[in-house]
What we know:
InterPro entries: AraC_E-bd, GyrI-like, Homeodomain-like_sf, HTH_AraC, HTH_AraC-typ_CS, MarA-like, Reg_factor_effector_dom_sf, Tscrpt_reg_AraC-type_HTH. The two termini are 13 Å apart. This protein is an alpha+beta fold and 286 residues long. It folds into 2 domains: 3-104, Homeodomain-like (Arc Repressor Mutant, subunit A), CATH 1.10.10.60; 130-285, Regulatory factor, effector binding domain (Multidrug-efflux Transporter 1 Regulator Bmrr, Chain A), CATH 3.20.80.10. The protein has helices spanning 3-16, 24-30, 35-46, 50-68, 73-79, 85-96, 100-104, 153-167, 170-177, 237-254, and strands at residues 130-135, 138-148, 185-191, 199-207, 217-221, 224-232, 263-267, 278-285.
Amino acid sequence: xxxxxxxxxxxxxxxxxxxxxxxxxxIASQANTSVFHFxxxxxxxxxxxxxxxxxxxxxTLAAHELSKTNIKVIDIxxxxxxxxxxSFAKAFKKQHGITPREAKxxxxxxxxxxxxxIQVNVKGAEPMLYHMVQKGPIxxxxxxxxxxxxxxxxxxxxxxxxxxxxxxxxxEDLTKLNNxxxxxxxxxxxxxxxxxxxxxxxWIAAAHKGEVPERFSQLELPASKWAVFEVHGPxxxxxxxxxxxxxxxxxxxxxxxHAGTPDLEVYSEGDPFSEDYYSEIWIPVK
Length: 286
């Protein structure tokens, strides 16, 4: 199953179960991938988190029913998963800018979020620079933080973690330990959705051979075939752009799949906000 096919299958599953309390595990299973990797793919391709897509679609359909039928507001609220008319009205107004009763009386405009269709994005004007390498197992040492991906917590906390290690000397200590197969500081994201949905371990680390200092933890990355993508330009926009290209352009057309083990962001020395800054994205593939 290709990435496009698997994503569309998951979207179709969501659409067919919009009136049910479906779990993210059920949705991800339709794409034959883990919760973490599914949510990453979905957000990169659609620029919308899974939970937000479900909320928008349900409120879009609720608005259609309010304007076209005589069903009571309270009944529509319950139908689309809201326990009280008040909670429904609050969510409805946040999305549409008007209350459910105003929608029923044809007062004001409403926002419609339509059913998604995933398509391959073939551009070609901006070539992606990458190469394949076989490496591993790779020992990395560093600091680890367990994070939730729910409601974008990981996106808020990770920059704070980098700010901390850059400010307290940890990044300099890791740089001194960097004698392994990958040069540079690493941002490592390890899926833990097998323990709990939306859970990941995020590491700031360095590839290191030898004894591990007591203050640091150790992680072994399995031997893998890696697709290594070059990133040129300031952080964080440049690396975010390449991540989106990988999932919207490279994976759909390359024939490769994510191997499911931790992937890496590799940061070289230098000014990360410079137009000339160089970094890499390492993705284990199969």
